[in-house]
Amino acid sequence: MAKSLESSPAQADGMPRARAVAVVGAGAAGLVAARELLREGHAVTVFERSDHVGGTWAYDPRPDGPDPVASGNAVHGGSSMYASLRTNLPRELMGFSSHESLAGRVFAGDPRAFPSHREMLAFLRAFAEESGVARHVRLRAEVVRVAPPPGRPPGEEEERWSVAWRGESGAVAVEAFDAVVVCNGHCTVPLVPKLRGE
């Protein structure tokens, strides 16, 4: 983040002033970050490049580009999971604070102790709706650059972050935010080591 939101200048009533915050990614981490920011009274915009919330739990068997392992391509839009994947934690341990956990109810008809990705995705979608985060999510909005505005050195009192994002039309728009939370995950592109003699 650009600076601590807790150190925001106070308003006349002594309360920290609300900040405009961009959250990059609408997977589990992005949804929870957005919920907590909203609870603190900040104006939140969540950018999600796909057409759904859920991040890595949104299984899609269709690759959106070349195989990143075979081609060495660092860009891959398809799912990073497989059709029969189930969680490696029991549902009783999965959930978010102050929200009904997976143990509380069945979301997509999979009551097993180690539910499928369909159950996890349904849980995340329900969480986004029930927590009010869903209405702050921009789908098909890919963030292409995040930077402090040109000509303004980092650390100045009124520092604002510039977020450039591409929508469905392909046009790039730029917006300013007081802080940026990056929750884009790490499970989309496999990390294949380069071995000597390969």
Description:
With 198 residues, the chain is of the alpha/beta class. The protein has one domain (19-182): 3-Layer(bba) Sandwich (FAD/NAD(P)-binding domain), CATH 3.50.50. Helices cover 15% and strands 17% of the residues. It contains three helices and seven strands; from the N terminus they run βαβααβββββ. The chain is globular and about 55 Å long.
Strand tally is 7
* Structural class estimated from helices and strands: alpha/beta
Helix content: 10-25%
Q: State the helix count.
A: 3
Radius of gyration: 19 Å
CATH superfamily: FAD/NAD(P)-binding domain
Overall outline = globular
What is CATH's topology name? FAD/NAD(P)-binding domain
The percentage of residues in β strands lies in 15-25%
- Class in CATH? Alpha Beta
What is the count of distinct domains?
A: 1
| CATH architectural label | 3-Layer(bba) Sandwich
Overall average residue pLDDT: 82
Question: Unreliable stretches, pLDDT < 50, 5 or more residues?
Answer: 65-76
Order of strands across the widest beta sheet? 3-2-1-7
Distance between the termini: 40 Å
- SSE order, one letter for each helix or strand: EHEHHEEEEE
- Sketch the major β-sheet: 4 strands, parallel
